């Protein structure tokens, strides 16, 4: 029944040879890997105006030069990540660049920051989309958390169905969002050029502003730079592209950069020319749509599509998180399970982990993740800075053809990214200080996992293992609870292996049952030694483990191997297990981790 349910949800398993068919073309990759970056135009321009609002509407003209500065950073990032794509065509992005050029700790810092950032991407995007839905339908406001969790589950199922299938579904809303914003910007610019929008709505460019400071300008610039989140996702997901993967990834990155630049510039310009001021109850995009088309059908279409893209922005995390996790797992810094492909050839463990972590965040913060946005933004600019600094080191070390131009691009990008990161830390320290604690802890956690894998490798390697002493004989201990077919089956199995000695052990809770069992055993299995143990505290485990210790101590003197054979019956239906006390599982759990002891379960299957 579970298998049938699973097949309905995620489809039939795909063969390994079908992996090539699961690769993305540029059109689909642009949609699912750029949804986070493109959706940020819905809130990035607003973040600039929220800071400038402290100086009054007269300062809104500053949004234009600030936007130009953000576009310069965007160009530097796109060119930088384009170089990363060709330099590291197997993916990994900031993690691989930082690890190879700045050292392991820098790489783990970048990788950890990006993993957390992708989890925040899902939680924040889904919560923002849910808010947009419940704003349209206020009666649903009390169900924000439930709706957000259901949306996470829905997108998770889509991604578990496979890369191409999820891309086919999710591409349409993304391109619809791009088209509708292009239309809004085009109509808005037409109204501006034809004089339908009064120039008196906005202050003139260059109007003097009282109280203006460099600190406030930098803060507005940093806040607006939140529109650049998700730019790095394509460099992490190169293996998902069809061949030639690096070329297709680079073209997709360039297309994303151009679209993001046009949409961001258009929204900022219209917001300035329309004289729009941020409102708690209405977004800047909503105000632009209202001023451009009025409160008609077109307005509600724009709002609906914007809400949809905010939800689908989470898919960037689903695309990039599993691949980054694969790179970390291959280097033995997180669990190897993240390298396993699921039934539909996707890295399903990474997808499920991301979904679970995101749902926990949504529940913990009750769907109100506004104060996670600064963490979300600073979490992006740490890898930005490390990746571009790593590329600086690479060009200085290798000095390939044209390295000076490449060095200049990365130097500009690294300097601006570092500046933005520091502005976030300085201006939003109360919100972002946890980064200074949990990122080092994540690095230590990665290091601990790596040490574990190294220790395991050392102990498994034949050349480094201590030679084992030869086994001179075998002693089997069989815990028995009665005279049954289950015990008989285990005894027959033990006898077929011809051990040196078989010892049956019975734990009695009273003297009468102890004597009665000894008498029955002597008639049933006279050739098998029985040891009865009296347990005055009604514990099976304690007397049994003490007896095993005694036998092991004596067996070591003769180089004998002690094996505990545990009889266990298997009911015909799984739910029947709940009707039995599962003593065999309890004994196994206690004995399994004891050194130099072999624990074997001998199953006996019921027929009805």
UniProtKB/TrEMBL annotation:
It is found in: Membrane. The chain crosses the membrane at residues 48-81, 102-128, 140-160, 172-193, 205-231, 252-274, 300-324, 345-365, 371-393, 405-426, 432-449. It comes from the Bacteria. Keywords: Membrane, Transmembrane, Transmembrane helix. Its main location: membrane. Coiled coil: none annotated. It is a multi-pass membrane protein. InterPro entries: AA/rel_permease1, APC_K+_Transporter. The keyword Membrane applies. Pfam families: AA_permease_2 (PF13520). This is APC family permease. It comes from Paenibacillus brevis.
């Amino acid at each position: 029944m579970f298998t049938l349910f699973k097949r309905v949800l995620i489809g039939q398993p795909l063969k390994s040879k079908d992996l090539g068919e699961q690769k993305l073309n540029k059109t689909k990759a642009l949609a699912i890997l750029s949804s986070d970056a493109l959706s940020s135009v819905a809130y990035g321009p607003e973040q600039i105006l929220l800071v400038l609002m402290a100086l009054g509407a007269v300062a809104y003209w500053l949004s234009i030069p600030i936007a130009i500065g953000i576009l310069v950073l965007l160009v530097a990032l796109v060119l930088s990540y384009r170089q990363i794509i060709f330099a590291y065509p197997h993916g990994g992005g900031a993690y691989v660049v930082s690890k190879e050029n700045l050292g392991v700790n820098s790489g783990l810092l970048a990788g950890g920051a990006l993993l957390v950032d992708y989890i925040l991407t899902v939680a924040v995007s889904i919560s923002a989309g849910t808010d947009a839905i419940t704003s349209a339908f206020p009666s649903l406001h009390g169900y924000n958390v439930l709706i957000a969790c259901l949306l996470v589950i829905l997108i998770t199922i889509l991604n578990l169905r496979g890369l191409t299938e999820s891309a086919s579904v999710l591409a349409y809303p993304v391109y619809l969002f791009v088209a509708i914003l292009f239309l809004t910007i085009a109509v808005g610019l037409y109204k501006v050029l034809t004089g339908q929008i009064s120039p008196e709505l906005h202050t003139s460019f260059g109007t003097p502003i009282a109280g203006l400071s460099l600190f406030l300008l930098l803060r507005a610039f940093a806040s607006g730079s939140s529109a650049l989140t998700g730019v790095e996702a394509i460099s992490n997901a190169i293996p998902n592209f069809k061949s030639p993967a690096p070329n297709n990834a680079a073209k997709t990155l360039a297309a994303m950069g151009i679209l993001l630049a046009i949409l961001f510039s258009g929204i900022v310009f219209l917001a300035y020319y329309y004289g729009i001021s941020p409102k708690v109850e209405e977004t800047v995009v909503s105000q632009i749509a209202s001023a451009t088309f009025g409160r008609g059908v077109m307005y509600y279409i724009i709002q609906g599509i914007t809400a949809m893209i905010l939800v689908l922005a989470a898919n960037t995390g689903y695309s990039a998180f599993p691949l980054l996790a694969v790179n970390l797992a291959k280097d033995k810094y997180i669990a190897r399970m993240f390298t396993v492909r699921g039934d539909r050839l996707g890295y399903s463990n990474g997808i499920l982990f991301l979904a679970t972590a995101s749902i926990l965040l949504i529940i913990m913060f009750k769907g109100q993740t506004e104060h996670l946005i600064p963490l979300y933004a600073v979490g992006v600019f740490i890898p930005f800075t490390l990746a571009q600094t790593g590329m600086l080191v690479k060009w200085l070390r290798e000095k390939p053809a044209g390295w000076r131009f490449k060095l200049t691009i990365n130097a500009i990008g690294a300097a601006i990214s570092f500046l933005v990161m520091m502005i976030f830390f300085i201006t939003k320290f109360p919100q972002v200080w946890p980064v200074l604690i949990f990122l080092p802890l994540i690095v230590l956690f990665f290091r601990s996992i790596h040490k574990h894998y190294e220790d395991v490798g050392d102990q498994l390697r034949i050349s480094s293992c201590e030679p084992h002493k030869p086994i001179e004989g075998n002693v089997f201990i069989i815990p028995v609870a009665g005279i049954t077919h289950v015990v008989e089956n285990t005894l027959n199995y033990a006898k077929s292996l011809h051990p040196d000695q078989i010892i049956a052990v019975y734990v009695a809770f009273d003297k009468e049952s102890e004597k009665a069992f000894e008498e029955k055993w002597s008639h049933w299995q006279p050739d098998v030694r029985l040891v009865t143990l009296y347990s005055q505290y009604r514990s099976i485990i304690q007397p049994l483990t003490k007896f095993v210790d005694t036998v092991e101590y004596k067996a070591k003197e003769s180089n004998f191997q002690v094996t505990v054979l545990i009889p266990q019956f298997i009911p015909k239906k799984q739910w029947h297990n709940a009707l039995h006390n599962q003593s065999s599982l309890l004994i196994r759990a206690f004995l399994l981790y004891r050194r130099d002891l072999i624990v074997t379960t001998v199953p006996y299957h019921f027929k009805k």
